[in-house]
Amino acid sequence: MRRFLLKPWLLLTLAATLGGTASCSSDGDGVLLFSVEDDKALGEQVAAQTDSTYRAKGQLLDRNSANARAYQLLDGVVNKVLNSGEVKYRTEFPWDVKIIKDDAVQNAFATPGGHIYVFSGLIKFLDNESELAGILGHEIAHADRRHTSKQLQQQYGISLLLSILVGDNPNQLVQIAAGLGQLQFSRNDENEADQYSVVYLNKTQYSCDGAAGFFIKAEAQNQGGNPPAFLSTHPAPASRIQQIQTKAAELNCQNRTVSNTGFEELKRII
Fold it and tell me: Which ranges carry the Peptidase M48 domain (predicted)?
C-alpha cells in the first residue's frame, strides 16, 4: 500500500488551517500540501481516466504498432527536453506523452506527476521542431514545478483530492480528468513555465525561444478571431513573448537551426 507524506487526518487539519491562505492569494498561488508521492499517485489515476475518456471517443492514439513511428518521433523531442539536466523531478516522475487525435484543437496539458497530452491540432499548427520542443517544455514545467497539483488543490480542495487518492470519489475523478485541458494557471505559474521552457531548451539543440514562435503565430490567429485553445487555457500577457525572448538572449541560446524532417513526418502521419 502506498504511503502519504502526511497522514490523511493531518492533511485535512492543515487544509482547514491553511485553506484561507491558499484562497486569498492575489495571484492564485497557495500552499501546496501534496507530497511528490501524492503527485505521482493522483497523476496516475487522472491519466488513466483521461486515457479512458479519449479512447472511448476514438481520439487517443495508443502506443501500439500502428502509432509506433509517431511516438518514436515525438518521444525523441520530449526526451531531449527531459534529459536537459534541468528537470527537477526527472527521475521521480514517470514522464510520458500521448497524442489526442483532434485536428481542430490546438492545445496541450499535463497531469500531476508528468503525464503530458498534446492534441494533433497543436502539432500541426506549429511551424518547426523548436516550437514543439518549446511548448512541450512549457507543459513539462507545469508538472515539474507542480503547478497542476497546486491549481487542482485550489479548485477542488485537499479533502476531495485525498478522497480520489484512496478511491472514494470516482465520479469526481471523471470530472477532473475531463476538465484538465481547461485548467487555468495563475500569471506567475504561466511566466515560470515560460522561463523554464527556455532553461530546458538551453541545454538542447533547439532554439530555446521556441515557445515564443508559437505565441507569435497564435496571437496573429487570435487577431483574426479564431484563437487556439491553448491561449484560453494559458492566457498570454502582453509582455509574454518579450520575456521569453529576453531570457533566451540572456542565455544566448536563440536562433539555432535544427532539421525539421522528423517533425514534418510526424505532422503527416498523425
Answer: 75-246
